[in-house]
Amino acid sequence: MGTHVIKMPDIGEGIAEVELSQWHVKVGDLVVEDQVLADVMTDKAMVDIPSPVHGKVIALGGQPGEVMAVGSVLISIEVEGAGNLKESAAPAPVKEAPVAPKVEAAVESKPAAAAAPRPAAACQGPMVAREADERPLASPAVRKHALDLGIQLRLVRGTGPAGRVLHEDLEAYLAQGQSNASAPIAAAYAQRNDEEQIQVIGMRRKIAQRMQDATQRAAHFSYVEEIDVTAIEELRAHLNEKHGASRGKLTLLPFLVRALVVALRDFPQMNARYDDEAQVITRLGAVHVGVATQSDVGLMVPVVRHAEARSLWDSAAEISRLANAARNGKASRDELSGSTITLTSLGALGGIVSTPVLNLPEVAIVGVNKIVERPMVVKGQVVIRKMMNLSSSFDHRVVDGMDAALFIQAIRGLIEQPATLFVE
Questions:
Q1: Is the pLDDT of residue 106 over 70?
Q2: Is residue 116 classed exposed, middle or buried when 0-12, 13-18 and 19+ CB atoms within 10 A define those classes?
Q3: Which of 245, 242, 261 is nearest to 253 (CA)?
Q4: What is the average per-residue pLDDT within 244-273?
Q5: Among residues 232, 266, 310, 315, which one has the fewest Cβ atoms lying within 10 Å of its Cβ?
């Protein structure tokens, strides 16, 4: 028997050290070639480290949250034969999951020498007591699902990172509802005095760093405008009815992407990146729209490249493809970087007003709030209209307030008169 030592690989791009984010194995585990051993975090990406050999884990080189130098010992594996006595081999990373600068994510769990597999929700029981004002971690999609099912999230045990409630947890709650029917209702309101400390590592650490950096470096200001989306919703419904089966269904997002493209022709200063160290603003002709997408590890921002050259259905298909890739952890680094302006939406939980944080080095982000029907006065008559707010933020170092207001007003005009989206 011999020992095969795996060192922290050189990820590239001049990176000298990386953060060990998570172990997928523990001492004593048998591993096979290409099995993922650990996740490491660079400044830009989460990278999987695979095993180059079959063998048994005999030592781990660090704990989650530890910053390790490239070339340091990551893991030792007992193998048949002599092993790599010179300790020269390092596995090549095989998968990336880049970090989105604009995020709202679940925190990582406490560090441990080895990460144990997450138990299934059904094995833990569906009900857990929380304080009445305690907000459980869950994505907007899960919150909407729970609302539709009439489930109080604070009563559902979350099995995701840091107790995040997942869709399968809701299913387990419903499945075990009958078996727990006899449990005292008072258990849900029992006093709690427990505490839990969560180490900020990996994805959550990068999120925190970038959010802090964005708010400290940029001079944020927000502008909110109300938009009548009745006409564009009617157009969307008509197009879906006529072409949905053959071309795919349209959401509001591709229309908003189109509105950004058209409005940016008159406001190129919004489609820009600001290098505050070099004091240089770069205005770009290409419109690469970042579309914020919720995933189990946080809000990632896949990029619709060259939106200026895409039709409604092309944009819709690309948004759908990228969103699925981000949610499944399969989006590449290129697909999650390089945006020039960002579009963020909370979907059905969009609220009335939000204050989005800039996706540096961009200088503008457009936030979409929920659509509500309200009585409005149109030509002296009270009518029911579908209304929506755009809550947008800008970098006041390079964008003047008047320009920001005119830019959003231009988008408003395009949305309220949707034919103008396609008039050249």
A1: no
A2: exposed
A3: 261
A4: 96
A5: 266
Contacts for 260 with CB less than 8 Å, ≥ 6 apart: 287, 289, 307, 341, 343, 366, 411
Would the pLDDT of 399 be above 70? Answer: yes
d(CA 41, CA 11): 10
> Could you give the CA distance from residue 10 to residue 92 in angstroms, rounded to a whole number?
8
Mean pLDDT for the stretch of residues 13-40: 85
pLDDT at 159: 86
pLDDT at 287 over 90: yes
Q: Can you read off the two tokens belonging to residue 409?
A: 């007003």
Whether the model pTM is above 0.85: no
Q: What is the pLDDT of residue 84?
A: 66
Q: Which structural domains are found in the chain, ordered by start?
A: 2-79 (2.40.50.100), 140-170 (4.10.320.10), 218-422 (3.30.559.10)
Burial of 135 (0-12, 13-18, 19+ CB in 10 A): exposed
Token couple for 337? 């970087």
- Distances from the Cα of 315 to the Cα of 14, 100, 122, 300, angstroms: 35, 20, 39, 18
Angle at CA of residue 333, ends 330 and 334, nearest 5°: 110
d(CA 150, CA 169): 14
Alpha carbon 207 to chain centroid, angstroms: 10
pLDDT band at 270 (very low <50, low <70, confident <90, very high): very high
Give the 3-state secondary structure of residue 102: coil
Q: Which string of b and e fits 310-341 if b means at least 16 CB within 10 Å?
A: bebbebbebbeebbebbbeeebebebbbebbb
CB 50 within 8 A of CB 75: no
The Cα 233–Cα 235 span in angstroms is 5
- Return the pLDDT at 188: 61
Mean pLDDT of 290-296: 83
Integer angstrom CA distances of residue 406 from 106, 224, 270, 342, 355: 36, 12, 11, 18, 18
Query: Residue type for 64, please?
Result: P
pLDDT at 415 over 80: yes
Q: How many residues does the chain have?
A: 424
Q: Are strands 364-378 and 381-395 parallel, antiparallel or unpaired?
A: antiparallel
Given a contact cutoff of 8 angstroms between Cβ atoms, the answer to whether 375 and 382 are in contact is yes
